[in-house]
Amino acid sequence: MLKRGKVTEPGATRGAIVKAVQSTGPGKVGRPVGGGGTVTFEKLVRAAGEVLSEVGFEKLTSNAICARAGVTPPSFYHHFRDKYQVLEELAQRLLSKQNEAFRTWVGGYEESPNPVPSLEELERWFSTATDIVAREPGGIWTMRALRALPHLNHVRLEWQRQYTDQIFQLTRRFVQETDWPLLWTRIRILAEFGYVVDELVYEEDRVAKEIIICEAARLVHASLRSVFDAQQ
Questions:
Q1: Of 53, 36, 40, which is closest to residue 80 (Cα–Cα)?
Q2: Burial 180-191 (b: 16+ CB within 10 A, else e)
Q3: CA angle 182, 188, 194 (to 5 degrees)
Q4: Domain-located, residue 13
């Protein structure tokens, strides 16, 4: 029987920490419903991803997106305020695909007697996440933009907290309630670390992707293991 205790995590109430995530994700950019508006919207998003992968977010412009999509600037501004809102849409789509894969990955742990996934399972997740980034149009630059642009801070934070809440809900039963704030905080740091791994795989050419993923899995495994070992 776990001991009951008061959770006193700074900046968050106990209810906020233990709350299960019910939504499919943070709020997204408004989209047109049906008709030609949807076609134009998708053309713009696809074109933005293509241009982004070629020039990066600093040189991305609405004119370049329009030229690639074959639409006029007024059409662009009918759907988006500026290039940052297009980047937000790209980020939401990328993170939504990662989260869909993540939900499938963690699904097997709902009834698991083991609080920490194996090294092999963690490696499989990191490989899946980085492959999604590589496949998504402009995916690598989108990940960079999430960290570099203040306009996208809220997107990154909301999704990372969602990942944290999902893992916390599955693992909190293995620790005393008085240690829930530590567990949530440790998982939150690891969620941030996961984004670093996504970037590092494609930016660090001095270390093979497989080695980065292997070492990242070891760090995550050891960090989580230390929390649960303390309960024994």
A1: 40
A2: bbebbbbbbebb
A3: 140
A4: no
The span from the CA of 149 to the CA of 153, in Å, is 7
What whole-number distance in Å separates Cα of residue 144 and Cα of residue 134? Answer: 13
Regarding whether 94 and 66 lie in a shared domain, the answer is: no
- For residue 18, being part of any structural domain is answered with no
**3-state DSSP of 92-142:** HHHHHHHHHHHHHHHHCCCCCCCCCCCHHHHHHHHHHHHHHHHHCCCHHHH
**C-beta atoms surrounding 143 within 10 Å:** 25
Q: Which helix (H) or strand (E) holds 214?
A: helix 209-229
Q: What is the pLDDT of residues 36-45, one digit of tens each?
A: 568 999 999 9
Looking at the structure, tell me whether residues 149 and 61 fall in a common domain.
no
Does the residue 20 lie in any domain? Answer: no
Please check whether residues 76 and 102 belong to one and the same domain: no
pLDDT tens, position by position, 48-92? 999 999 999 999 999 999 999 999 999 999 999 999 999 999 999
Together in a domain, 69 and 100: no
- The two tokens of residue 119 are 């090294």
Q: How far apart are CA 146 and CA 125, in angstroms?
A: 20
Quote the pLDDT of residue 36: 53
Residue 7 contacts by C-beta under 8 Å, 6 or more apart in sequence? 14, 17, 18, 177, 178, 180, 181
pTM for this model (two decimals): 0.81
Cα(102)–Cα(222) distance, rounded to whole angstroms? 20
Tokens standing for residue 89: 């849409």
H and E: helices and strands count for the chain = 10, 0
Give the whole-number percent of the chain exceeding pLDDT 70: 83
